[in-house]
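FIELD: query
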Amino acid sequence: MPIQSASSPQSGDRRWYDLFSRGARDWLRHNEKIREAVRSSLPDLVSESGILTGSGGRTVQVPVRFLEHYRFRLGTPETQTGVGQGRGSPGDVLRPADTSGEGGRKGSAGDGGGGVELVIELKVDDIVDWLWEELALPNLKPKTGAVQEDDYVRTGWDRRGPRSRLDRRRSLKEAIKRRNVSGTGPMFTDDDLRYRQLVKKPRPSNDAVLLLAMDVSSSVTEDERKLAKTFFFWVLQGLRRQYQHIETAFIAHTTHAWEFTEEEFFQVSGHGGTVASRAFVKAQQLVQERYSPARYNIYLFYASDGENFSEDRRASLRALRELGQLASFMGYVETGLSIRDPLQTESGEIFRRLTQEGLPAAGYPLRAEADVWEAIRAFFKQQSET
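FIELD: result
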């Protein structure tokens, strides 16, 4: 068999394949680096003001380290003695670490080479889609039985109707059938025309409301509020993947409850004791006044450090039982960082009772950022199975 020369077609194909495979490997490596950068930027992303109810198409800037191919570099005359040059033994430090800050992002100014960073702009919705696929989280199904306003659907044809609903194909079929029967006659008559007919039919609701309630008494720290906001953010993103339209309402409470805007909700802090039932009664009022269960799928999430006035348990259970008859789900996230036994608190006991009674309710402990992902995964998997 003759030896192929370097310029043969087979050799050229091989070089093309090597170049293509190298590009594919670089593309996969670049995508992995972007994923790592996005994952590390998530806490900053969620901490932005207005991130929960921001308008669609919003973006976030993520810094990514500039990537270069590995290659050999020739040494310069100023290069100090390195490996293979001069005397040395295992363990010797050939060159001390550069702590002058030359070329780096920190330290004093200098003329060193330094690194390069790129800032890429990604849509928040794209990041959420990627995370949902990576975590293998399911999509929810709207609650059955709820109906929205009547919708117009097409059912059949009629000989009369507006010109905009004229069905040309159906009209042509009617004309052909008439000519086949009679054998003669004009190409078209008014009797051949057929118009699409629309009738009103109720359709299943594709709307939802997310009621977010939080204890803002003096016992709740800033770190605990951040954990609650992170959980609320990912719950809302998951619900947006299912529902065509979703609204939010923010309730904060101490011994009284108030409705706030999103920005105020995560900044307000109070003093005094904690009476959780006031927040649940406030949620009931919002449902009665604005969010009819016949139209909305209702989700309630409550965040607290677990403390509550012990005499308030009966009132809280009564309000949550009434909400549980209307809501698709009621969730409780406990952010008590100093509590040794999570969910073994006054508020945790309330939601445990609701779960035992068969109501759509559950509790999730949040001690750190990693617990947020476990709580999100547990919530959506539970909803999918239900």
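FIELD: remark
The CA atoms of residues 331 and 362 lie 5 Å apart.
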